[in-house]
Design a protein that fits this description.
Layout: H1 2-15, E1 37-42, H2 54-59, H3 70-82, E2 89-91, H4 94-102, H5 106-118, E3 121-123, H6 138-156, E4 162-165, H7 173-177, E5 187-190, H8 195-204, E6 208-211, E7 223-227, H9 260-275, E8 282-287, H10 297-313, E9 317-320, H11 323-332, E10 336-337, E11 339-340, E12 348-350, E13 353-354, H12 363-386, H13 396-405, H14 417-447, E14 483-491, E15 497-505, E16 510-513, E17 523-526, H15 529-543, E18 553-561, E19 565-573, E20 582-583, E21 585-589, E22 597-599, E23 605-608, E24 614-618, E25 623-635, E26 653-659, E27 667-671, E28 675-683, E29 686-693, E30 699-705, E31 716-724, E32 731-735, E33 741-745, E34 765-767, E35 770-774, E36 778-784, E37 788-791, E38 797-805, E39 821-824, E40 827-830, E41 833-843, H16 847-859, E42 863-870, H17 873-877, E43 882-883, E44 895-902, E45 908-914, E46 928-931, H18 932-935, E47 939-947, H19 955-961, E48 966-967, H20 971-974, E49 990-993, E50 998-1007
Helix pairs in contact: 6-13, 9-10, 12-13, 12-14, 13-14
This protein binds zinc ion (ZN).
């Protein structure tokens, strides 16, 4: 070998010149108005967890799965940018950037600050992750964006200008108008839209549009939005990572394979092709893809040369650019753009590949994220009431865990199993700390009195995060004589609330009292075997211990809780005269017997046929026929001709099969003074409870689905259908990220002539709040407890997909089957899903009231905290009732507090949201107002500054910078005037809110006196 090398070296020496010259590339090109401008946008797409966990991606471990190290990207970027001031780069995911930033010396930090200020390094999008747009709730999207944006503002003094949602699998209206326009972005770019839509838009040069995504806020919250022609990668042949195989530009004439002219020709050809489908003489090349620039020089070296030689050639103009520069260039052309309304769901990348499976994938993780989201909202309120301290538990780690869980491979369910476990672990750690904070805040509030501030509270509160599987150690204790179980019930909503509380207890020998010692009516419902099994299996699986003695009953009682406050209830051993809970009457009915079962104690009653099917829904104004059923789709294994399989992303069914209840299983009917239930074992792996309580006029359906059997070798996707007589005429409505409702028409798209290939999968939409349909008389609505997929596949019917278990990968990169299991001592069984949905009929025009107000109650359930205390001691020494707002005040019915949070500097972040859209409801879809002073009793508002949605700049500053885009045609003339709340008078401090408006404030408070004097 040595001799061969020597020969080669000698041979090379013959052709090498005596001296080699340092080549200076001219990379200084700006925009040339007379040429086609090719904006080269260097970028890396760094998933905040997918095939590896967020930390593994950052440090570059576990590389056998994927060779990806974000630390390499950012480390190599800095010198590469310093080497040439014309080079530019955008960085997006703050979860990674912040990990890296913490590791840097002051010297590097100051260099990076200069790079940011010079515009060489631009931080865009700016949330902790690039959140998904189907599975997250809008409150989570706001929170995770705020976290990143405020960090960028604090460290760099800048505000991101560009929305960069290049990878999420379809795009929501809420992303466009709320998370883009309302955070002050000038444009929004993305990669994934339906293949049929994309083809048409390329033809019509309408990939770039003005997106007016909110019916209510119209042009006041529109955004310039661009879909990429193919994806977020470079044109074919222009990939320059170390191991990529695109031809590099070989411009050294002393070496072999000189190819400058060829590469210039390739460049010009690709540019012209793209120009042919793009308006104006500006096109963008996304120069990078997943986890690229791990050795940043390889890309910049090639781009330096391309810019130099392409501009020497002169046919087109190539420049280092960013999406900001590109946006400004588009804006400067003063063109009018096509109008886009609605959203970009569902997304298919080809005929049988609808990315609608992930709307339901990993339903347990989706539910966990949603529970944590509501808990985080409540925990921040309690943290504010107590006063944020630097020591002790806080909500920061829950905030962080929730933020990354919104990533488009996190809550979506499209990550590998070990990564899903990592998200759940982070949430559990964050929850544990927030739980301690909530306990100490509540302890503080109950121990404070008018004359005494909270010092070091001694009350120890416990909470029950596993209540859904009837596991709650504090409520399962057998009370000794003289002790009370005290239950503090906290309501995070700004309205007084009447609700039902349900906790597991060991005995029937108890009584319930309110904070004044008065008897409270209560009911005992036997806990059935289905729940005992859930409880013992999952306590063992998740806590690694036996669940202990089994509680016999659910204790159910009504509670009344003030706005943003708590009430206290006590549960004691029943003594002589005290009121005892009523026991439910329980009986079974054999299926097929010739009888009808009725349940319901209040205004609503439901009749079931002896088959266990609901037949009638009866309230004061009408009797409705309604039927509910289950079915499963067999997951397609692909065929030779069309190999697409059903998987974590894609829903590709191979037939739908009804699930009929087993004939021999009886129905169990529970009647009580407060709650009525009908329990059904539908088959060996589906259990269902239909529940009515006398305070609410809707039906609650609780389902336990799983383990989905796969021993027949067929993956299954389990759905439930509710059929009514609503004449829906193919039309139904689903929410956008939990906020606005969007009209959907079966087998139809507003933007193009739909070619239907997948009649089920292609009509599925993401649901976070609910789905409804209507006719000329009535509305029928369903509300959900987590993100799910749903549709209306025939008139009058609504379908929800509840659970999925699949055996094959669907070839979109995750390379794992979506086959979730839960293990006890190495024995694993398929995941069981437990959850709820709620449904109701309303007269036409009335449905929004229930959807909006009850939807908020689902998002923000009552928070329960337990303590054991000496009898009567509590009432004599503790604050038993509290409201964080003025006791004479309540928020208007159409407004909620999205955020009430003490910031590190002591100021308060407050977000108020109008819950109704224009046209939702005749009395509630109107301008409303909130008196800020009433929200802070005992305190004086020093200053209230209105901010952008992500609270990183003043609203007025954001408005003054907003680009005013032109819409093609006469759209502006047609639009009715958009309504917005007016400026806030600094003395009156009343905040007006128009339909769907969210207003964000930073409030400086001056403490006047104790909380409790107000
Ligand atoms: Zn991605």
């Amino acid at each position: 070998m040595a001799i061969e090398v020597l020969v080669l070296l000698l041979a090379l020496a013959g052709v090498l010149p005596a001296e080699s010259k340092f080549m200076v590339y001219n990379t200084s090109a700006g925009i040339d108005p007379n040429k086609l401008n090719v904006h080269l946008v260097p970028h890396t797409h760094d998933d905040v967890g997918w095939l590896k966990t967020v930390d593994q991606y950052y440090v570059g471990s576990n590389n056998s799965i994927q060779g990806a190290c974000v630390q390499n990207v950012l480390d190599s970027l800095v010198p590469a940018l310093l080497a040439d001031k014309n080079r530019k780069f955008i960085y997006v995911e703050q979860a990674f950037f912040q990990r890296w930033w913490r590791d840097q010396s002051e010297t590097v930090q100051s260099i990076v600050k200069q790079l940011v200020h010079s515009g060489q390094l631009e931080l865009i999008n700016g949330g902790m992750c690039m959140h998904d747009e189907a599975a997250p709730h809008y409150i989570d999207m706001i929170d995770q964006t705020t976290l990143g944006h405020r960090f960028i503002k604090e460290e760099f003094g800048v505000t991101p200008r560009i929305g960069w949602q290049i990878d999420p699998f379809g795009h929501s209206a809420v992303q466009a108008y709320l998370l883009s326009a309302e955070v002050g972005f000038d444009s929004l770019f993305f990669g994934r839209i339906d293949y049929q839509d994309r083809a048409k838009r390329k033809n019509e040069k309408s990939l770039e549009v003005i997106w007016q995504a909110s019916k209510s806020l119209g042009s006041s919250a529109q955004i310039f939005a661009g879909a990429f022609p193919e994806n977020y990668e470079p044109p074919k042949g222009f990939y320059f990572e170390v191991n990529d195989n695109s031809p590099i530009v070989q411009d050294d004439i002393n070496l072999f394979d000189y190819n400058v002219q060829e590469r210039v020709n390739d460049f010009v050809a690709a540019a012209v092709a793209q120009a042919n489908i793009t308006r104006t003489n500006h096109i963008m090349w996304t120069m990078g893809t997943d986890f690229k620039y791990q050795y940043a020089y390889t890309w910049f070296r090639q781009m330096d040369k391309l810019i130099h030689y392409v501009n020497q050639d002169g046919r087109v103009n190539a420049l280092y650019s960013t999406p900001s520069i590109y946006t400004d260039a588009k804006y400067a052309t003063n063109r009018a753009w096509p109008l886009k309304t609605g959203d970009y769901f569902p997304y298919a990348d080809r005929a049988n590949a609808y990315w609608t499976g992930y709307f339901t994938s990993r339903p347990a993780l989706k539910r966990y994220v949603r529970i944590m989201s509501g808990y985080y909202l409540a925990a921040r309120q309690l943290e504010f009431f107590k006063g944020k301290t630097t020591s002790g538990p806080n909500t920061d780690s829950l905030a962080d865990a929730l933020a990354i869980a919104q990533h488009h491979d996190a809550v979506t369910g499209t990550e590998k199993q070990h990564v899903a476990n990592d998200y759940a672990k982070r949430l559990a750690i964050g929850y544990t700390e927030a739980e301690a904070l909530v306990a100490s805040s509540l302890a503080c509030l109950v121990e404070s009195t008018a004359n005494k501030e909270c010092g070091n509270p001694t009350t120890k509160f416990q909470q029950c995060p596993l209540m859904n599987i009837s596991y709650c150690p504090p409520s399962e204790t057998v009370l000794s004589n003289g002790k009370d179980l005290v239950l503090v019930v906290y309501n995070p909503l700004g309205w007084k609330r009447e609700d039902i509380v349900q906790i597991p207890v060991m005995t029937d020998d108890i009584s319930v009292h309110d904070s004044e010692g008065k008897d409270v009516e209560s009911q005992l419902i036997p806990i059935t075997e289905a729940y005992h099994k859930l409880r013992s299996y999952h306590v063992k699986a998740y806590l690694g211990r036996n669940a202990g003695g089994t509680p016999k009953y659910w204790l159910v009682f009504p509670v009344s809780v003030p706005a943003l406050g708590f009430s206290t209830y006590s549960i004691s051993r029943a003594q002589g005269t005290g009121a005892r809970p009523t026991k439910s009457s329980v009986y079974t009915v054999q299926r097929g017997e010739n009888s009808v079962v009725n349940i319901g104690q209040g205004n609503l009653k439901v009749a079931f046929s002896a088959e266990g099917k609901i037949t009638h829904y009866i309230n004061k104004w009408r009797t409705e026929s309604v039927e509910q059923s289950y079915s499963f789709y067999a997951g397609s294994n692909g065929t030779e001709k069309e190999p697409q399989k059903s998987g974590a992303y894609i829903f590709r069914p191979n037939g739908s099969f009804p699930i009929s209840p087993a004939k021999q299983t009886p129905l169990t009917v529970v009647h009580g003074s407060i709650v009525d239930e009908l329990h059904e074992q539908i088959n060996s792996w589906i259990y269902q409870v239909t529940r009515l309580n006398k305070l609410k006029e809707h039906i609650e359906v609780e389902f336990i689905v799983g383990p989905i059997p796969i021993d027949d070798g067929i993956g299954k996707e389990v759905a439930t259908q509710i059929s009514t007589t609503v004449k829906s005429k193919k039309t139904f409505y689903t929410d956008s990220s939990g906020r606005d409702f969007i009209e959907r028409i079966r087998d139809y798209r507003t933007d193009w002539n739909l070619e239907v290939n997948q009649p089920a999968a292609g009509n599925y939409y993401p649901i976070n709040l609910g789905i409804f349909m209507k006719d000329e008389e009535k509305e029928f609505s369903i509300l959900v407890d987590r993100s799910v997929g749903g549709s209306s596949l025939s008139d009058g019917q609504i379908e929800l997909m509840l659970h999925r278990r699949l055996l094959l990968d669907d070839s979109r990169g995750v390379a794992e089957a979506l086959n979730e299991t839960v293990c006890v001592e190495n024995k694993c069984t398929g995941l069981i899903i437990q959850g709820k949905y709620y449904f109701r009929f309303d007269q036409l025009g009335e449905g929004a009231r229930w959807r909006r107000s009850y939807g908020q109650e689902i998002y923000s359930p009552l928070l329960l905290a337990f303590a054991e205390e000496d009898k009567n001691h509590w009432r004599n020494s503790r604050t038993t009732s509290f409201s964080g707002i003025d006791s004479s005040y309540t928020l208007p019915e159409n407004v909620v507090i999205l955020t009430l949070q003490e910031l590190d500097d002591g100021n308060v972040l407050l977000r108020l949201a109008h819950l109704y859209e224009v046209g939702d409801h005749k009395e509630l879809s109107v301008m409303t107002s909130v008196e800020l002073k009433k929200l802070f009793p005992g305190k004086k508002i020093g200053k209230a500054t209105e901010m952008s949605l992500s609270a990183n700049q003043e609203r007025a500053e954001m408005e003054s910078k907003r680009l005013v885009w032109k819409v093609e045609g006469s759209a502006e003339e047609k639009e009715t005037k958009v309504s917005r709340g007016g400026p806030v008078d600094p003395v009156k401090l009343e905040v007006e809110l128009a339909p769907m408006e969210i207003r964000t404030f930073i409030i400086e408070l001056v403490q006047l006196n104790n909380l409790f004097d107000a």
